[in-house]
Amino acid sequence: MSDWKVFSDDLIEQLPLIMSGLENTLLLATSISITGFVFGILVFYLTLSQNSLVRLFMRGYISFFIGMPLIVLLFLMYYGMPTIGVRWSPLTVALIGFTLNIGAYNAAYLKTAYNGLEQSELDAAQAQGFSQFQTFRLIILPQVLRLSVPAMTNQVIRNIKDTSVAFLIQYTEFFARIQELASTNFQFFKAYTLAGVVYLAMVSVVVLCSMWLERRLAIPGTHRPTRKANSRY
């Protein structure tokens, strides 16, 4: 029996488990992208606080979680915290750990975009009597979100790929099921190639959605003419 026959038979046999793992991957990737986005906005808002201690704490938070490897954070929460009596399910650990990590990155992206805003806009809002929260909600946030679309897209792509480390804390996502498939017939090259193709397909969907979103949010008058318009050159 050929290697491909063995691999395809095992793949068909384990397909329900693999699809279940893919569902878990999509669930985790979607959840952490949403929670990390919302938490990132909250952290970003606090970095603009008028309280210097709050700003200092938020800068420390961002630096700490960007600097800490994600796998170390997950291991600390899943394998380390039970030694002090705190036990969470793999999904809970993944949601909390990823959210803390992603929130720090998203806050950094938003703060970078904020640094590029015109100070005169903010001064004008203050002169008009806007509160700090009104200025943030009506002027700052819409602009920084628009400017951060490429960075946020890259983060979502990273989220999808990073879910593959969740199997190390016993979360049975897609890559964990591929590992089981590979260990069944020792066709590691075929199994991991299949995994790469599936991850590439998921990332491609995100990229296409991002391109559509960027066109929707593009500032009028900033669209560059295409090469086709100057085809004679």
CATH topology: MetI-like fold
Outline the low-pLDDT stretches. Answer: 222-233
> What portion of the residues fall into strands of 2 or more residues?
under 5%
Q: Main sheet?
A: none
From the alpha carbons, calculate the radius of gyration and give it in angstroms. Answer: 22 Å
Number of domains: 1
Quick one: CATH class? Answer: Mainly Alpha
The CATH fourth-level homologous superfamily: MetI-like
Label the structural class.
Answer: mainly alpha
How far apart are the termini?
58 Å
- Helix and strand pattern: HHHHHHHHH
Gross CATH architecture:
Orthogonal Bundle
In total, how many beta strands? 0
* Fraction in helix: over 70%
Mean pLDDT, as a whole number? 88
Q: What is the general shape? A: elongated
Q: What's the total helix number?
A: 9
General description of the model:
- This protein is mainly alpha-helical and 233 residues long.
- Helix 4 crosses helix 6 (132-147).
- It is built from nine helices and no strands.
- It has helices at 3-47, 52-67, 70-80, 90-114, 119-127, 132-147, 149-162, 174-185, 188-217.
- It has one domain: MetI-like fold (Orthogonal Bundle).
Short structural summary:
The protein is mainly α and 233 residues long. The protein has helices at 3-47, 52-67, 70-80, 90-114, 119-127, 132-147, 149-162, 174-185, 188-217.
Task: Walk me through the topology.
Blueprint (H helix, E strand, L loop, with lengths): L2 H45 L4 H16 L2 H11 L9 H25 L4 H9 L4 H16 L1 H14 L11 H12 L2 H30 L16
Helix pairs in contact: 1-2, 1-4, 1-7, 1-8, 2-4, 3-4, 4-6, 4-7, 5-6, 7-9, 8-9
